[in-house]
Amino acid sequence: MVSDAALRKLEAIISDAAARAVDWTARRNDLVVDEKSAGQFASNADVDIEARLRRDLSAAFEETHILGEELGGSLQAGATGWAIDPIDGTSNFLLGLPLWGISVGYLEDGVSVMGAIALPELGLLLSAATGTGLRVNGAAHTGAARPGTVKIIALGENDFEPGPETDARAQSFREQGFAVVRYRCAVFSLASAALGRLGGYVERGCGLWDIAAAEIICREAGMRVDVGQLAPGRYAIDARWA
Asked: Helix, strand, or coil here: 84?
């Protein structure tokens, strides 16, 4: 079982990364942007934050196997190590929208057992390890967990699943009485669901770094979470309140 001390170390590391990311938002003229693929962006801020996270995780923990969205690495199915997304929702970040986040998840034998998500511009840090329950800003979450009568679900879309399939899924949820939103940030959407602000989040074709932290966070919040690998490096997540 992951210790409370380990979780607190992770919270401190991601808090530092969040502060560094906010500093970047004040220096937008210094951002250098690369379009990795159609509609998928990375910036020097993404690389800087990931490098800082890698350095701090390696210094604080014995396990140094790290997979990051920007700087690579390897974490095969069933492996033990870290999966990092330094800025998920980079498009939102670049446009000045606050709907982006930082995600650091730790897996043991392929199972998500500890994770932290920071939403820096919203002042939120969600964290959890197996058996801890959801923590918000370093303390046990005592707010309302399950969403109320308003039914809203978030969907992700990416270059793996064709748009018509995602649109068909959205229509299916509408027929079940849900309003459907797409924030273009899995980390923000999954954190919002864990807080009870959404009924859930569904995406097919995301990266392990998008969901490694959110999986344990949503489970510890009390959600039903299904994760599966669709292809090398591509995963599906279905996290919902029952």
From this structure: strand
